[in-house]
Amino acid sequence: MEAVRRLLDLRHRGRAEDLPALLHDAAPLLGAATATVLLVDYGQLRLYPLRGRGMTGAAPIPVDGTAAGEAFRTARVTTSDECVWLPLLHGAERLGVLELRTRAADVDELEVIAALVAELIASRRGYGDAVEHTRRREPMQLAAEIVWNQLPPLTFAVDGTMVTAVLEPCYDVGGDAFDYAANGDVLHVGLFDTVGHGIAASALTTLTLNTYRNARRSGLGLTDTYQSIDKWIRAQYPGSFVTAILAELDTVTGLYRRISAGHPAELLLRGGEARPGLPTPTALPLGLGTMLSRPPGVTTEQLAPGDALVLYTDGITEARDSSGALFGLDRLTSFVIEQLALGLPSPEIMRRLIHTIVSYEQGELRDDASAAMIRWKG
């Protein structure tokens, strides 16, 4: 309880950078020699000690092939003869792990500590830059800075429904973005691919995201939301456009409704197999909607318990290897089916997908690559 009290004091007068020293002093109260916060970098490749005052930086730990990384990948506690690693989860969002050097521990009590540490990181991160300094392994371009500051957490779960997304390249993205919100029984999801790159694209992306949120918060349905975003893009950026999927999922009944605005069709996976693709497009890209006189088409699909939907931008399927061969829809489908068969959680599947795409293009993406997975358990 003394350790909890000290941590709770940080809620009212502290920053994220104060957490490492506090945990160092509190470690004996937890029966540990040391207690270290390890945060995952933006590329989700390694775990780095949270930067703090008076603390020396330890070597990073790979996410793949290590016990600490296993705690992050699986969101479960892992142990060794001398260490305990507990996942740091803010809701369903994976922040990193808490490493405790201890031979014997009450895991249940330590999970409470890890949950509190995660909440402190999430709530204190905006009062300084320690978390960003820790997570960034290279300078972030301004266009990427603008977009990342607009995005929600990568993962969210509610009542058996989970949505998780990935975005690459982490440090130079400008045109891709996603958003979601859970209101009552409805999960709203949007995936956007803006024409162009750099600052101009990030400015258009910012307008698109905030217009989407404004329409949603004003209680507009899918058709009116499409028309609102389309109107504002035409007014502020004439000649530009954004492809998108605007979707709603009833988390109780599994009824899925969406508009595909010039965007690739999402994958629908059921029972280890791909279902027929949903119609696409059902509307012109946002910003070009007035070129057709008819309203955007809304597709309705009834999901079955356990279904998974994968939304993606063309940077995924149009990735090319050294010979110029496209990654393609078939390879994407096979990859996701294989990962689902392994029983992996959605965040880990998306992490592996984006690393597969980066590897396929030999580490140099030609276009932004983004994807989001929605899983409905029913």
TrEMBL record:
The protein's superkingdom reads Bacteria
Which Pfam families did the record assign?
Answer: SpoIIE
Going by the UniProt record, its keywords in alphabetical order are: Hydrolase
Q: Name a GO molecular-function annotation.
A: phosphatase activity
Show the InterPro entries listed in the entry: Bact_Sigma-Reg, PPM-type-like_dom_sf, PPM-type_phosphatase-like_dom
PPM-type phosphatase domain ranges (all copies):
158-376
Name the SUPFAM superfamilies for this protein: GAF domain-like, PP2C-like
Q: What is this protein called?
A: Serine phosphatase RsbU (Regulator of sigma subunit)
Please spell out the taxonomic lineage of the organism that makes this protein: Bacteria, Bacillati, Actinomycetota, Actinomycetes, Micromonosporales
